[in-house]
Amino acid sequence: MSFTRVAIMLFDGIPLFEASVPIAVFGERRPGMPEFDVRAVSAEGGPIRTDIGVTLAAPHDLGAVDDAELVVVPTWRRPSDGPPPAREALDALRRAHRRGATVVGLCLGTFVVAAAGLLDGRGATTHWRYASLLAEMYPDVDVRPDVLYVDEGDVLTSAGSAGGIDLCLHLVRRTYGPKLAGDIARSLVVPPHRAGGQAQYIDHPVPPPSTGDPLGETLDWALRNLDRELTVGTLSARAMMSRRTFDRRFRQATGTTPAQWLLHQRVLQAQRLLESTREPVERVARSVGFASAVALRPHFRRRVGVSPSAYRETFGAAPDRTPVSRT
């Protein structure tokens, strides 16, 4: 569905940057771009006080949602802070959806779309830090915590701040084509396209082991020896447990199997090395316990969403530019 009228629903207590994301994409007049009618809406009435105390005076009330073709909830206050979304705002979202408008929740704005019941039985995402809370609060939503955005046709959701930009550009691309999306991306100086299925870049730190805890000490040892061949037998012997007891306690402590945990930790360490060193991918792979870069690649892509080389290109350390001495 094409769109030119865009309603952006703003709530009290929201982060300022996230609130500005759809305005940055749709609000600026650019050559060759449709004349978007962007309406900043006070979803709860009156001025909007952001989380850092800056007050915004939105020029529109909820009536501006009633004929918008695209309705965006760009963010939300932290779900544990303040009252739930106002009933009038949720009713406006439901009416918009019923008459065929596209509804979008960016980052924590997904919580508002879910509260309106528009995500029941659908896939959705939000910032990874709040994904488990979203799943707990709205069990009928298929929460996908490790993607940038989810396109369900008439309802779309995204992860954090950059994911919101990606989703807005995706909407332009699917409606008006890649050239216009690319022009806007260049104007914003952001990548022109990141696929929705690409993973959010999430670090899962391992808490330090408690003194005298054989399982925790074994996991700590394993993290320092990822380049070695590590088996369940090796780890259970290190913890001085039978394999069966070790496997049971391991699942209780981590929620996964030893093999899956090791694989995940190896990929995480590969990420860190790709970020902080210029070592060849082959050497990185061997240093974290893979036989080769070829063996690392499918596991890395499955968990991170891109290849090791593409990840380094985005997050890697800059090449050493220290002048070479000619003496």
Describe the model.
The chain is an alpha/beta fold and 327 residues long. The protein folds into 2 domains: 5-188, Class I glutamine amidotransferase (GATase) domain (Rossmann fold), CATH 3.40.50.880; 214-315, Orthogonal Bundle (Arc Repressor Mutant, subunit A), CATH 1.10.10.60. The chain has 13 helices and 10 strands. It has helices spanning 16-26, 87-98, 109-115, 131-137, 161-176, 178-188, 214-223, 232-238, 243-254, 258-276, 281-287, 293-304, 308-315, and strands at residues 5-10, 37-42, 48-49, 55-56, 70-73, 102-105, 123-124, 142-143, 149-151, 155-158. A 6-stranded mixed β-sheet has the order 2-1-5-6-10-9, with helices on both faces. A two-stranded antiparallel sheet has the order 3-4. The longest helix is centred in the C-terminal third of the chain and has 19 residues, at 258-276. The N and C termini lie far apart (66 Å). InterPro entries: Class_I_gatase-like, DJ-1/PfpI, Homeodomain-like_sf, HTH_AraC, HTH_AraC-typ_CS, INH-QAR. Residues 216-314 form the HTH araC/xylS-type domain. It comes from Streptosporangium becharense. Keywords: DNA-binding, Transcription, Transcription regulation. It holds the Pfam family HTH_18.
> How would you state the average pLDDT, rounded?
86
Q: What fold name stands as the CATH topology of the largest domain?
A: Rossmann fold
Through-space gap between termini: 66 Å
Major beta-sheet overview: 6 strands, mixed
- Helical proportion? 40-55%
Q: How many beta strands in the DSSP annotation?
A: 10
What low-confidence regions span 5 or more consecutive residues with pLDDT below 50?
202-210, 320-327
Structural class: alpha/beta
Helix and strand element order: EHEEEEHEHEHEEEHHHHHHHHH
| Biggest sheet strand line-up | 2-1-5-6-10-9
Shape: elongated
Individual helix count: 13
Q: From the alpha carbons, calculate the radius of gyration and give it in angstroms.
A: 23 Å
Give the CATH H-level superfamily of the largest domain: Class I glutamine amidotransferase (GATase) domain
Output the CATH class name of the largest domain.
Answer: Alpha Beta
CATH architecture of the largest domain: 3-Layer(aba) Sandwich
Q: What's the number of domains?
A: 2
Proportion in β-strands: 5-15%
Pfam families: DJ-1_PfpI (PF01965), HTH_18 (PF12833)
InterPro entries: Class_I_gatase-like, DJ-1/PfpI, Homeodomain-like_sf, HTH_AraC, HTH_AraC-typ_CS, INH-QAR
Keywords: DNA-binding, Transcription, Transcription regulation
GO molecular function: DNA-binding transcription factor activity; sequence-specific DNA binding
